[in-house]
Amino acid sequence: MHAPESLSPFAHAVSASLAARGLSEHGFIGAAELGAATSRVDASVAAAYGLVQARGAVIAALPYRAGPDDAAGAGGPAPYARVAPFASANRYATLVRLLKEAAESAGLPRHAFRIFVNSRLPEKPLAVLAGLGFIGRSSLLVEREWGTSCLLGGMLLPEDPFGGRGGRPPEPGALEPGVGCGSCRACADACPTGAIAAPGSGRAGLDRLACIQHWTTEPDPVPARVTAAWGDTLYGCDACVRACPFSAGVRDAPDPVSPAETGPGSLLSIPWLTGASDGELRERFRGTALGMKRFSPALWRRNARLAGK
Ligand code: SF4
Ligand code: SF4
Predict the structure, then answer these.
(1) How many A from CA of 236 to the centre of ligand 1?
(2) Are 47 and 106 in the same domain?
(3) With 70 as the cut, is the pLDDT of residue 1 above it?
(4) 78 - beta bridge partners?
(5) Measuring from atom 2 of ligand 1, which residue has the nearest CA?
(6) Predicted confidence (pLDDT) per residue in 138-162, tens digit
(7) CA of 191 to the centre of ligand 1 (A)
(8) Ligand 2: which residue has its CA nearest to atom 7?
(9) Going by CA atoms, what residue is nearest to atom 2 of ligand 2?
(10) Residues 215, 122 share a domain
(11) I want to staple 288 with a disulfide (CB 3.0 to 4.6 A). Which of 259, 263, 269, 292 is the partner?
């Protein structure tokens, strides 16, 4: 969180409201910094989110415990395919709910703020600008308290949270993948496909086309080097998150998921997944992170077949 004395009274109210809902890790971005950080956002995206009207933003981090978690219901015969912990409950919905509650509790009328979670806005650079951490070697945000084991979301605000005085600039190098990691290479060593550039490799950041998580959401044919390391994955991969030493703090983190946000669970029956109809899969994933419109039932059947190989 930014030093409280630099925030406007309006931002103080938002900050207190977020903290009261367990979103203690949050930070603000002033109007000028927000404009600069989003200047290259596609015009249609900017219009959809009302970026032009926004006078600032607050970014918040919702922690989750990195896996593996075998406790959640499997619901069918073995073998099972795994959903990564960030999506084994619908934490995107949890974060939207908490942000909305915080805004309303701080007195913001519904039309005055815009929530973004898992959006097309540059959430990780915005989180750095908000002072939440730095971009790690894995290209994930290394958040001060939760490391890489958190989801990011935010709100566009109708007032500048610094009253026009400008926010704090990011730490030098905080936006460059791995600069803040020092000599640590734990995520690069843990990655089953070598997607993360190790120090001294001559590369930097993440090779997205070698990342299992990327391919769990892509319907195109999966490259052989990725299928070879696929394991029991249905959606997501958190090997690099689990490896990050900065993520250790999430062991004691609050988990504010509500009963309506607990799906789809972490283990799902491969025989059921591969045999289910489109309608059955849609119904099973409705209201979960796997139920997003851009994901087709065929994607889940393909991933389940790869997990069952
Ligand atoms: S999500 Fe998995 S495959 Fe992708 S970079 Fe992390 S460890 Fe590697
Ligand atoms: S595991 Fe180490 S190298 Fe990777 S993001 Fe975390 S601190 Fe950086």
Answers:
(1) 9
(2) yes
(3) no
(4) none
(5) 237
(6) 999 999 999 999 999 999 999 999 9
(7) 5
(8) 181
(9) 184
(10) no
(11) 263
Average pLDDT over residues 86-92: 94
| Residue 117 sits in the same domain as residue 239 | no
Q: Best substitution site from 138, 217, 225, 233 to test ligand 1's pocket, by max atoms within 8 Å of Cβ?
A: 138
Residue 138: CB within 6 Å of ligand 2?
A: yes
The answer, yes or no, to whether residue 43 has pLDDT greater than 90, is yes
Regarding whether 140 and 9 lie in a shared domain, the answer is yes
Question: Range of 215's domain?
Answer: 181-307
Within-domain flag for 284: yes
Residue (of 185, 287, 169) closest to 244 by Cα position = 185
Which has the closest alpha carbon to 82: 217, 264, 240?
A: 264
Res. 73 pLDDT band, cuts 50 70 90: low
Does pLDDT of 4 surpass 60?
Answer: no
**298 and 207 share one domain:** yes
pTM score of the predicted model? 0.94
Our CA angle for 24, 101, 284, nearest 5°, is 100
Cα 150 to middle of ligand 2, angstroms: 14
Substitution site in 211, 235, 241 for ligand 1 pocket (most atoms within 8 Å of beta carbon): 211
Q: Are residues 17 and 130 in the same domain?
A: yes
> For the residues of 142-204, what is the DSSP string, one character each?
EETTTBT-EEEEEEEESS-TTTTS--PPPPTTTTSTTGGGTT--HHHHH-TT--BPPTTSS--
Confidence of residue 68 (pLDDT cuts 50, 70, 90): low
Is there an atom of ligand 1 within 6 Å of 186 CB? no
User: In whole numbers, what is the pLDDT of the chain averaged over residues?
Assistant: 93
User: Strands (DSSP E) along the chain, which ranges?
Assistant: 26-30, 56-63, 80-83, 114-117, 133-135, 141-143, 150-157, 233-235, 267-269
